[in-house]
Write a structure and sequence with these properties.
about 130 residues, 6 strands, two-stranded antiparallel ribbon, alpha+beta, two-stranded antiparallel sheet, about 20% strand
């Protein structure tokens, strides 16, 4: 009995990665336009650059990606545009995102970045 030789999955993986990269870039363009190229935390004008400067535009997930379903990693409703300085504070948990609007996915509420989101120091959020 002979079996067909297994086909390499490399082409499938490359195509999937290309689709994910395209979805992420599309999401970033939507978020940049929605936030008018300004940091949502300090309202500083941001710019797209590879240099490490405080006004560098970065995208922050309001919910950690490890807690999200894979289908939501490139969803503009959970991503905000912030400057590099504020992104560092968000990653160190010095700033916390607070908002009143939320949307549900499979019974789990998520903060909606399209609505009003405020960033407050971590101590005052408690």
């Amino acid at each position: 009995m002979t079996f067909p030789k297994p086909t390499p999955r490399l082409k499938e993986r490359v195509l999937q990665r290309t689709r994910e990269d395209h979805a992420w870039m599309t999401c970033c363009r939507v978020v940049d336009a929605r936030d008018r190229y300004r940091c949502r935390a300090c309202h500083r004008r941001t710019r797209r650059t590879m240099t490490l400067c405080p006004e560098r535009a970065e995208h922050h997930h309001l919910v950690p990606r490890s807690l999200l379903p894979k289908t939501l990693h490139a969803d503009p409703r959970i991503i905000v545009l912030v400057c590099a300085a504020c992104h560092g504070k968000l990653q160190r948990h010095e700033l916390v995102a607070v908002g009143s609007t939320a949307w549900m996915v499979e019974g789990t509420p998520y903060l909606d970045a399209s609505g009003e989101v405020r960033f407050v120091p971590a101590q005052s959020a408690i």
